[in-house]
């Protein structure tokens, strides 16, 4: 598993850390920087399945992210903006050809519901742990097969058509 991006409050960092702390057979890589970076580093010193990597240059993100099986984007419902968000990291994961785990909020869920390219979960330790225990390699392969449809739908070529219509 991978979490890449800003290591900050409201991004599910504590939930992910507490979950993986209880699941030593599952590995998570945090790649990024931010206010909770020291907490991630501290956990990585105590739990070998929690790994911290410094942020990398933009042109390296996809190749490193591609080495994971699943990307995690757990936004917490701390404000309406977060609840209605559709984080860029979701598309970075999908562009890296890995399925995603996202918060069960409207916009993120819509991507999962429409393209079946990952899983949605209520952001909590218990719910995330249950979900992680239920995912197997066959599920990952199945979800991965649907990524191309999602990426094509959200491509600049398709999104720019929407802007053209709005501007006209």
Query: How far apart lie the N and C ends?
Result: 43 Å
What sort of overall outline do the alpha carbons produce when their principal axes are compared?
A: globular
Radius of gyration: 16 Å
Mean pLDDT: 95
Proportion in helices: 40-55%
Q: What oligomeric arrangement do these chains adopt?
A: single chain
The tally of strands reads 6
| Strands side by side in the biggest sheet | 1-2-3
| Total helical segments | 10
Strand content: 15-25%
- Give the class from helix and strand content and strand pairing: alpha/beta
- Main β-sheet, in a few words? 3 strands, parallel
What's the order of the H and E elements?
EHEHEHEHHEHEHHHH
Q: Give the uncertain stretches in residue-range form.
A: none
Q: Would you give an account of this structure?
A:
This protein is of the alpha/beta class and 168 residues long. 51% of the residues lie in helices and 16% in strands. The longest helix has 12 residues. The radius of gyration is 16 Å and the shape is globular. The mean pLDDT is 95.
Entry keywords:
168 residues; 6 strands; 51% helix
Task: Compile the SSE list and pairings.
Elements: E1 2-6, H1 13-21, E2 28-33, H2 37-46, E3 50-54, H3 58-65, E4 71-73, H4 80-83, H5 88-95, E5 100-103, H6 106-115, E6 118-121, H7 125-134, H8 137-144, H9 147-153, H10 156-167
Parallel strand pairs: 1-2, 2-3, 4-5, 5-6
Helix pairs in contact: 1-7
In short:
The protein is of the alpha/beta class. Helices cover 51% and strands 16% of the residues. The protein has ten helices and six strands; from the N terminus they run βαβαβαβααβαβαααα.
């Amino acid at each position: 598993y991978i979490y890449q991006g800003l290591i900050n409050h409201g991004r599910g960092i504590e939930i992910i850390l507490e979950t993986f702390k209880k699941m030593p057979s599952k590995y998570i890589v945090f790649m990024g920087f931010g206010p909770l970076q020291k907490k991630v580093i501290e956990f990585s010193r105590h739990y070998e399945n929690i790994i911290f990597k410094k942020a990398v240059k933009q042109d390296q993100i996809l190749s490193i992210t591609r080495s994971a099986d699943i990307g995690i984007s757990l936004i917490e419902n701390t404000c309406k903006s977060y609840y209605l968000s559709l984080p860029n990291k979701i598309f970075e994961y999908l562009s890296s050809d890995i399925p995603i785990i996202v918060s069960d909020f409207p916009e993120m869920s819509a991507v999962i519901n429409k393209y079946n390219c990952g899983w949605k979960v209520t952001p909590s330790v218990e719910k995330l742990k249950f979900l992680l225990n239920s995912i197997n390699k066959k599920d990952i392969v199945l979800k991965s097969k649907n990524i191309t449809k999602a990426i094509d739908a959200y491509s600049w070529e398709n999104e720019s058509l929407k802007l053209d219509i709005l501007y006209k």
